[in-house]
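Example 9 (inverse folding). The structure is encoded as follows.
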């Protein structure tokens, strides 16, 4: 992640402090293109700053397999799909709406580069059989 030097400023940092972040952040995507993002207001807490940096570093690490890059929540839902649970059953178990689970399923298909729900179910069942 690169910061535009002309737009960057900072304040003293500490556990409860807020950090002034650049108004524009440039980040390289997997296909090698730079993506510029404009931040609104420019101030975020220290915990959020760390989370943003960690997230950016994770997205750059292309050496990990798609499964290793899944969040804990997505992996939990993927496991439940592999156990044969429906979106409604997963939603009830996790106290979420079925629409939220359907969104997670769509994101899983995109992240794992699967074409349809059948491929997602097959991959999930195979993963559960191999990993318990």
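The amino acid assigned to each position is listed next.
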């Amino acid at each position: 992640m690169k910061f535009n030097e002309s737009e960057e400023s900072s304040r003293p940092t500490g556990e409860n402090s807020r950090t002034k972040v650049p108004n524009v952040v440039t980040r390289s995507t997997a296909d090698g293109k730079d993506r510029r993002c404009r931040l609104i207001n420019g101030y975020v807490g220290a915990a959020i700053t760390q989370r943003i940096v960690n997230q950016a570093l994770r997205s750059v690490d292309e050496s990990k397999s798609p499964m290793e890059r899944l969040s804990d929540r997505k992996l939990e839902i993927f496991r439940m799909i592999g156990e044969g649970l429906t979106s409604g059953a997963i939603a009830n178990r996790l106290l979420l709406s079925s629409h939220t689970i359907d969104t997670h399923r769509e994101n899983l298909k995109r992240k794992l580069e699967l074409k349809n729900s059948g491929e997602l179910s097959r991959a999930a069942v195979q993963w559960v059989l191999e990993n318990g």
